[in-house]
Amino acid sequence: MNWRLPALIVGILAVLFVALTLAKVNPIDVVTTLLKGSLGTPAAISATLRETTPLLILGLAVFLALRAGLFNIGAEGQFVVGALAGTAVILRIPGPAGIVLGMLFGALFGALWALPAGWIKAYRNGHEVITTIMLNNVAALMTTALVAGPFKDPKQGSPTTAVIDPSSRIPNLYSNPPVNLNATLLLGLLMALGLAYWLRKTVAGYELQAVGANSTAARFAGVDPRRVTLRAMSASGGIAGLAGALQVMAFEGRFYANFSPGYGFNALGVALLAGGNPLGVLPASFLFGMLEKGGTSMQISGVPKGLTTVLLGMLILIAAAIRYRRVRVVA
Amino acid sequence: MQGITKRFGAVTALDSVSLEVAPGTIHAVVGENGAGKTTLMRVLYGAIRQDEGTLEIGGKPVRFANSAEAIRAGVGMVSQHYGIIPALSNLQNLILGAEGGPVLNLREAEARAESLARRMGFKFDWHQDATELSPAGAQKLEILKLLWREARIMILDEPTAMLSPADSDALFGSMRQLTVEGATVILVTHRLPEVMEHCARVTVLRGGKWVADKAVTDTNPTDLAQLIVGGALVAHEPPPARPPGEAVLSVQGLVVRGERGNDALKQVSLEVRQGEIVGIAGVDGSGQRELFHAVAGVSRPVSGTVGIGGADATKASPAERLRGGLRVIPEDRHAEAVIEDWTLEENSALGLQRLAPLAKGGAVDTGARANWAKAVAERFKTKHGGLNMPMASLSGGNQQRFVAARALEMDPKLILAFQPARGLDLKGTADIYQAIREKCDAGAAAVVVSFDLDELLEHCDRIVAMNNGQIHFPPPGQEKDRDAIGRLMVGAA
Amino acid sequence: MLEFVFLTITLATPLILGAMGGYTSERGGVINIGLEGLMLMAACITALVSPGQGPVVGLLAGIASATFLSLLHWLATQHYRIDQVISGMAINALAAGGTNFLYGKFNDPSRVGGIPALPDDLYKYSAFLLPFALALYVQRSRGGLRLLAVGSDPDKARLMGVAPIRVRLLGLLATGVFTGLAGAMLVSETGVFTDNMTAGRGYIALAALILGGWRPIPTFLACVAFGFFSALRLRLQGTPILGAELPSEVWASLPYVVTIIALAGFLGRNRTPAGLGKH
Fold first, then answer.
1. B133 at the C interface (CB within 8 A)?
2. CATH domain B247-490 topology
3. Which of C140, C141, C156 lies at the smallest CB-CB distance from B85?
4. I need a labelling partner for A322 at 20 to 30 A (CA). Which of A57, B227, C9, C251 fits?
């Protein structure tokens, strides 16, 4: 039995334990607060699911890129660009047509925002981590400037667009305040199923994963890695942009400065934890959603919310270490 | 070196091999790929330890735990794959690992380097990046590295593989200079003309065994070539008369640029017809790999054409060639043929993923693929723990069986194989070649690259030899003549 | 005018220190996108320790914390062979959450006054000397040569008797020290610690490293340029330029856009260390 992996897990837990003890925090209390805060009441579950929704779709976006061997850290930027683009469209075209167009434009602009990073990686071998992070920063700055300037609602003091028409909002599947279940969650679920199908059952999905797993073998198998890289990155950005537009239409109702509380970065964690199957994004995003919501409750009880992020960081390390174990030769 | 034996698992790479080299001489060690030359040198260089046998330097027994100890004892190797780091300067490459202290005294180092270089008649711009080095220059720097570390025994492994005749001559001039100063040079090579012209003695290895040790004056290239490839143990019949079929592969004037800017393929032309199995013999690095990649579509030639199935495929992508019936068994299984993390079933479609019945339109027919994977696994009796297990769970030999079956079972028109039976025993090898024969009888054609001449002689219809980027055809009637091909391989003809 | 120069220097200093930390890591072949987290952790620990133990101990504690995280990155990537990008992002997450937790739990809100700090000049002089010192180190010392070798081709370096894993250990230790200095400087300069106060400086430092082609002096210049644009943004916020009111965000975006263009290969050749990410 290889001692390395257990040693890592034990080491991590030990450090965590020591830190918590020094801070006079009871680990059991932490866990119960997290659970109660995220799942304890119907209202809590509803809020958790609301957090889960954008994480789910963004998680799928990053997951797709990951399967192609790409780290799309730019989901954050693609998310806000798509959100703003979608908002701009919906404000002009209300109603169901606006919803559809908003989604399309959100996806389009998200894809466009990922395109430079994809091209640079595919044809110049420039690492996509840096280009996407840079694009994130530009997206944040640009959307802030736009929403404080040309897109600003003149009736408002703070940098925000006008609120979208009620007919442009994605309806709730179930609504009994404070419990709401928005249709977007169902959409996300369908997307997860769709992605799972696409990856397993289409030639394009097969070839994309081949490039991500072993681009040399993929070349011998007749796949052009550069084209696949470019397409994968764009598609990933498109899904992230779509997530942004949906966020506006389902929950926020408008676009404003600092629109995203870091969903894009969490999406990377979601995708990493999901493992090999896109359906894994469902529980992973739910876990993140739980920690988001539960963390707030934890905060109220005196434990800083950052602890949840620490837990997630550790989970990611352990998940990554597990992935790199060696396979035993059986025949 | 006396009675050196070295085993790697079930394979005996060296079987009681002895080598005696006189000081101040240039001594050649010759043999085919897999004969054990490099292994023997690696023992001498301390990179590996022998299982049996003794090592003596200057009359004193030695035992090296690692190459650092060998270096300290004065042994150095200039290897075929240069240990030069392009991003560093020439001087930096020279002193790396033997800097002489935490602080570098560059002026002193440069002075010493310059004096060493001048002794050998070399000239270097010490602060230039090593990327600018020509293959000849890299070789010279490697030699200086040995001198820097005061090596007395210098092993040169295929030093002239990438050199022009002029550079080769210059290199041997330097080696003579070294021996005049008392160093000993061991030359591992395939090129018999070099042996005849520059060496004092030559040792022949074959199949891990010592075959002969002669003074160069007592032998000649024909004699040596025969010793290297062995006497004709089994008479191979001349190729059976076959009705000439259509040309399936037609390569014309192919020129491919190598990594160092030289021409790895020089005006290579080859035609392979339906029903033929053509073997490409040659020592590693003669250009077979580049030819293989060019035909597979993975690399682009500088000039020349490739025709597959009668149509010009020079600009066709690998996918198009696969659709046209090209089937490839690549050289490097791990990097080029399989995806270790994927299941056997998923791997079974690699290369064939767009073809019916595995795909209908853009969709994957997982049922058909499952059946296909089963058929592939059964064809050569691949032992596995389940088709849903990852490829990495298979041993090398079983992976090879799987990859070969995958290439052969789905309508191959042109079979392109690089060591198709790598890692397999005699029975496994026979099975695979039998399958290739069957497919060719049904109208396909096959090109097989191998470093094992016996394997090619046993299974191919005719054999061509590659040497130094060029292709050589044996005289008519001698397409399966061991001596003739052996000579072409080592450039002795 | 002079004041603007000082502002530029102040803003560039943590970038320079962070970028030098990135240099000792990446020049040896270890991808390190966790600079942000390292700086953040150092800032937090310095802020927590200084009030009680004095600024010197606070600084040392901050450096120690960054070094600890840096060693974690070394362990994860070199021993466990975890993907280097994932490890870096995980460290950023650990630092973001960890600093939030530690500061929330251990900070005494009732304490009055700013955090005792060492004079800014310490950091500024370090930042301006360090690039030149590193450039010299890499050219003139055995350790420096080995760092270059290991980052260019770890396999061949191994053949020459150099152990990549050990060279990288020293490199990542240095990363911890330099990013520790950077983080401590942020706190000493502002007098407080706030959540995510590094605000992306770690990523900018990495961008500067790339823009500078993984060489100390050009990287230093890139950091100064980034500092310049940051200062420009601060000074020009709200004031109309060139007749039209060009949002400050345009200036602020410039460094990022330039980095992207550089990576696309439009600004000279690709100088990525050939051994980056390899074992």
1. no
2. Rossmann fold (3.40.50)
3. C156
4. A57
